[in-house]
Amino acid sequence: MSVARAERLVNLVLCLLSTRQYLSAERIRGIVPGYADAPTDDAFFRTFERDKTELRELGIPLEVGRNLVSDTVDGYRIARRDYELGEIDLAPDEAAAVALAVRLWDSPELVGAAHGALLKLRAAGVDVDQSAPTVVESKVRTTEPAFGPLLAAVQAGQVVSFDYRRPSPAELRERTLEPWGVVSWRGRWYVVGHDRDRKAPRCFRLSRVVGEVRKVGRPGVVRRPEGVDLMGFVADTHAEPPRLSSASMWVAEGRAAGVRRRGKVVEAREVDGVPGHVIEIDLHYPDAAAGWLAGYGADVLVLEPEVLAKSVRERLLSAAGGVR
Amino acid sequence: MTAAQERLPRLLALVPYLLARPGILIEEAAADFGVSARQLRKDLELLWMCGLPGYGPGDLIDISFAEDTVTVAFDAGMSRPLRLTGAEATALLVALRALLETPGVADADAIRRAVAKIESAAGQAQPAGVAVGLGVREGASTAQVRETAQSAVRDRRALRITYYTASKDEVTERTVDPMRVLIVDGRGYLEAWCRRAEDVRLFRLDRIDQVAVLDEPAAPPPYARPTDISEGLFQAAPDQRTARLVLRPAVRWMAEYYPVEDVEELDDGRLRVRMRYSDTSWIVRLLLGQGGDVLVEEPAELADLVRAQADAAIARIDKHRSA
Q1: Cis, peptide link before residue A305, omega less than 30° from 0
Q2: Which CATH architecture has domain A3-83?
Q3: What class, spelled out in words, does domain B3-74 have in CATH?
Q4: Do A123 and B81 make contact, defined as CB atoms within 8 angstroms?
């Protein structure tokens, strides 16, 4: 932005903030320095249009209206109560929380927005020390290329379409979505919205979006249902806690440290001429445990329960090429 | 936003910022705005030329400099910052709420107060369209480890840990100098200088089997840098080998969970990938556990090894059963 342009825009904001009357474009042209240089009417209106767009993009509430019914053209002003950030005063521990919150994002779009907010809080007189050491830090990353375009579409209220790959049953097809929001759950990002093809709310995992996200139609058409619980579409927050089930297995001497650390030794025992121990272990997710235990091959032999022993053997059989 | 696009928001925020801090050092203000002192002076010179219609001496923004400090004497009506945009309110408030979910963030009360105040100041700009759930799963023993690790970070004390390294399937004792506790993708990590590895390491909290705070102070060397996790938690090592694998749909998650390259879509939802690994025993364990859902195309020795180990395991199981 040229010095002249930045100066003109600051003056325009100050001028529109200071007026209670709507000022027509012509009046503004006569008052605000910088516009007088426009060689023609056309050049002035083009510049003025661009300036208005820029102010609106920054979130400056530009009011359009007429002072008298007899006025023939619209005028502009900025209502101070809509422009200004409300009074805010943060205690030191509250400011520390804000500093920590800003560090949550590891994503250019969200870091930019959070810093924009921080700038304004500081301008409101709040002191936020970002260099203060922290004991615990959360990080939310956005590595999916689709994140930026989808967040922009959510914020602009614009319909999108994209190619989406579903793994099972395998399928790659175009989806058209009215996006309501982006959701991060346990480090993975999703987009939630109204699927126009299915005519129902759906959620999509961003890592499975293939290629570009395309904008469909104009901004401002998507209506997010009032009070919609975005997280509810993604996270199974009502899932029952896993049931603990106990298992016992033989583990070869000095092997399978990953199993040994999770259980307790019941007795020493020799199996197949190999010294080892019988170990008891509490399992949270028996299905996942079969894969984990099969990974140890001959070093681990499941004794109980039978269903787990069978499931491990089946996995090993198919790994050996016995089942295809 | 480009540097030019960032300038107008900064110019609009500068006057109220300075108004709230008469006589502030230019260096300090520049640091708060994330720009050089030279750039900040340029901004101030520009603002000095701006003001109210009339643009006479009493209408212009008046800024006075004294050595390295600056004071605003007349604000031309720009005494408050611009309200938050929807995107700004969202980024800040969603992050604050996520903090409430972070285990070990003691001051939940302060976070709630900050949220309430910011919501009230933000007015119409309410957060929308972004939701974050950290979804941290933390067992009781991991919570204890985390609390000990946090106290060591706070008190700057070294730790003695018993740590399970999954890639090598081994448990080792290490003395570490804690740097910070991180929560990433629903899991807790201790970032510390490991005296054994002589490098910065991320230790998964649920793999720290024992932890003891030592009397000696934590002393990470000055060149110990926090890990850049933006590219993922797996660091590429120079001595890694690669395997070419075909994943069936049931194990496509492997391509999302582990670092893979040259991803190629095949028919029936199968995926061909190249996967890096440092430790052969680790990848054998991983592949054995997936049963027939992964086909090893290369290297042939790896395919043979997986098959041989599966055969040996089945032989042992069957012998034991018949006994």
Answers
A1: yes
A2: Orthogonal Bundle (1.10)
A3: mainly alpha
A4: yes
